[in-house]
Amino acid sequence: MTRRILVAEDDRNLRRVLKAVLAREGYEVAEAPHGAAALDWLAAHRADVLISDIRMPKVDGLSLFRQIRESRPGLPVILITAYGTIGDAVEAIRAGAFDYISKPFDEAELLRVVGNAVRTAEITDREGGGG
Q1: For residue 45, what is the DSSP state?
Q2: What's the CA gap between 25 and 31, in Å, rounded?
Q3: Higher-confidence position of 90 and 21
Q4: Rounded Cα–Cα distance for residues 28 and 45 (Å)
Q5: CA distances from 85 to 30, 91, 104, 106, 108 (A)
Q6: What are the beta bridge partners of residue 31?
Q7: What number of H helices and E strands is found in the chain?
Q8: Is 29 in a helix, a strand, or coil?
Q9: pLDDT greater at residue 37 or residue 59
């Protein structure tokens, strides 16, 4: 079964890079240019992992993350940002984010984190807690 990843990122070029990297690994990738579009997409579709930038227009990544926590608590969320601090990372993880990646990101690190998130989603699905 092909796993679907939603990428919410306002930088079109970075969104394209993320899509290409993930598609090359065999993932189906959907894109959203901001948090509001991601919420709309998730209302109609299923994702196995959400990768979201933190700073985006309309609905930022942290607001998106909080809303997803309520509607789909089992969905692994990976937050990415160019403005990251260790404090931000700790706060995101404590709030339930699957992981936190700073830009510019290392492709191998991104794929490792996404792979771990997909495995977590698979376990959640098997245990009947999919969202």
Answers
A1: S
A2: 16
A3: 21
A4: 12
A5: 28, 10, 13, 17, 21
A6: 7
A7: 5, 5
A8: strand
A9: 37
